[in-house]
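## tool: complex_structure
## caller: assistant
## args:
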Amino acid sequence: MNIIVCVKQVPDTNEVKIDEKKGTLIREGVPSIINPEDKIAIEEAVRLKEEFGGKVTVISMGPPQAKDALIEAYAMGADDAILLSDRAFAGSDTWATAYTLAQGIKEIGDYDLIFCGRQAIDGDTAQVGPQVAENLDIPQITYVTDLEIENKKVTAKRQLEDGYSIIETQLPVLLTVLDGLNEPRYPSIKRIVDAYKRENTVKVWSTEDFEVDKDKLGLDASPTQVYDTFVPTHETKGEMLEGSAKEKVEKLIEKLKEEQVV
Amino acid sequence: MLKIFEDKCTGCEVCVSKCPFDALEMKNNIAVVNHDACTLCGICVKSCEFDAIELEKEEKSDKKDLSAYSGVWVLAEQRENELLNVSFELCSEGRKLADELDTDLSAVVLGSDIKGKAKELIAYGADHIYVVEDEELKHYRTETYTGIITEMIEKAKPEIVLLGATHNGRDLGPRLSARLDTGLTADCTKLAIDDERGILLQTRPAFGGNLMATIVCPEHRPQMSTVRPGVMEKAEPDYDRVGDINEVEVKLTENDINSEVVREAKIINLKSNLSEVEMFTQIKDIIKEAKKGVNLEDANIIVSGGRGVGDPDGFSCIEELASTLGGEVGASRAVVDEGWIDKEHQVGQTGKTVQPRVYLACGISGAIQHRAGIENSDLIIAINTDEEAPIFDVCDYGIVGDLHEIVPLLSEVFAEVLN
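## result:
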C-alpha cells in the first residue's frame, strides 16, 4: 500500500502573542511545528504501512526551513520526504497550493491513499485537502475519526455536527483526519540522527523537478488576495464592578435588569 | 515579488512590525525585504501609509470577462429534509449583499423532499429558489453535489456564492472552488461590498485568530465564501415577500440530464452524465449521536470556564450557574486541552463561534483565540482574579474576584430573582 501524506509546517499559534498597541503579531520565540492534525495523518499512514506493507511518502510545500517538519515525519516512520520549494510558489492561496501539491503527488505517482490533516492551525481553512482531491480527480472523505481498509475499499467514520456517517469508497481516496483518530508516536531519535546524516532525506523539488504549469503558481495565479488585516475589536462598555463579592454580584444583577436580561 | 520604493520609504518601521514572517528589516533607514522569508502575504502593503511597498503582480493578458456574472447565490443545506439554521442566516446576509449590488438573491437546495420547506427561504430574502430533488440527493455526497452545483453555477453564472461552514459546506466548498477555478474564503465573519469595485470583501480570522484579514477575489467568479453557523444575524421573516420556486430536474443514473426552468429566474439546463461521479462514494449509514445537551450556537446564555476553575471538579459551580440561568456550559481551549471538559464545550477560533445574549467568562484570561469566538455576544461578563487579564478589555461588565466565590453567589441570587 502506497500512502502519501500532505503536511504543513506552521507556527505554533497557541504561542503567538499580540502586541495590542501596535496591532501586530509577536512571533519572536514562536516555535515551528508540524500542524497537529497532520501528525495524526502521518501516524495513521505509518500504522497502515506497518499493517499492510508498502511505503509512506510525506510531501509539503513551503520555504526551505520546512525541511525540519519533514525530517520529523521521517523520524516518525515515513520512508520518503519531498519538499516542494521554489520562489514561484510564494503567495499561494489554497487554490494554488492545492494545484502545486497535486502536481507533486502526480510526480510521485503510484498511490492508494492520501492523508491530510483536516486543517492547519495557522489558516484553519480546511480547503487544501478537498482541493488536492479535486485536482487529482479522486474521491475524498473529510473529518475522518476512524477508518478500516479491506479489499481495496475504505470504510470511514466521518464526523458530523450531530453524529457521524459511515462512508465507503474504493481506493485511491483522499482522507482528511481529525484529532482523536490516533495518538501520534514520538519521533525516533535514531531516525532523526539518521536523517541528518543522510544527505537526501528530504528531496527538494523546484519547478524544474516536476511538471507544473507556471501560470498556475504562487501569488499571480491565486484567485484570492489579502486586502487588509487588522486586530479584532469588540465594542464594549468595559465597566468594572467594585465592592465586596456580595456587592459586586448585586451590582451585576442590577445591570442585567437594566439590560432587560432578567 | 515585493518591491520597496526607496524614495517613498520614510523609515517609519510600521511594515517591519506588521510583517508576520519577520521578512522586513531596516537598513540605512529604508525597509529591506528578505525574499527568502517573504511569503507575499501582502500585509505590509496595506500597512504602509506612504505607498512605498508594492506587490508586483503579473498582469494577465487573458483577463476573464466577469461582466457575465451576476446575482448572489446561497447554497442552502438540508439534513433529513430540514433546512439548517445557517441557511436562513445566509439568506438574510445574502439579501443585504444583493441589495447593495442591486441584483437578485437565489437559494439553491438539493434534497429528496425539500420543496415545501425551501419556500421559507423567500421570507428570509431569496427572490428565486432552485430546488433539485432526487432520492439520491437525500444525503450530502461530495461528488454528486459538486457535479450538480458546478453545472448550475456554470449555467447561471452567479457573481457570489455563499455556503454554511458546516462539515458538509466545508467539504463541498473547496471541491467546487477547485472545479470552477475560483477563490474560496473559509469561515468568514463579515461580508461587505466594496463601493468602488463592487467586489465582495470577505473578513475572516487569520493566524489562528490572532488577526482578522479581509480577503478579496477580484479576477475570478464566482466569489465564494463559507460562513460559520451563528455568525450572521437571521432576519425577521417576511411572509409577504414574493419569490419563485424553480425545480431543476436531474436524472442521476441516465446519460442525459435535462431540466428546463423558465421564469424570472435564470434558465438552468443541466445536461451531463453524472452517473460516473455518482458512484464515487457510498453512504452506508448515518448515525445521530445522543445529544449530550451542548448547543452553544443557539444558546441564549453561556457560562464558560477557563483555567481559573482550577480542576475538572471546579466546573460544578459553572454548571450550576448555567443550569440556574437555563444556559449552556462553555470552555476555553486551555481547559479542553487539559482534558477537564469535553471538546464540544469549546468556544473560540478552534471551537464554536457563539452569539448569546449573555456570555459569562469565568476564570478565562481571554486569549485572542477565545475572544474571536465570543465577539458576537450581546453582553460579555468577565470574572477573573487577575485584573490585568485581557478578557476585561472586551467585557461589558467585569468583576475582579475568585470565581469560586462569585459564581455560587450569582447562582444563589439569580435563583431568588428568577423565582
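## assistant note: Confidence is low (pLDDT under 50) at residues 253-267, 271-279 of chain B. Residues 301-418 of chain B form a domain with the Rossmann fold fold (CATH 3.40.50.1220). Handing back to user.
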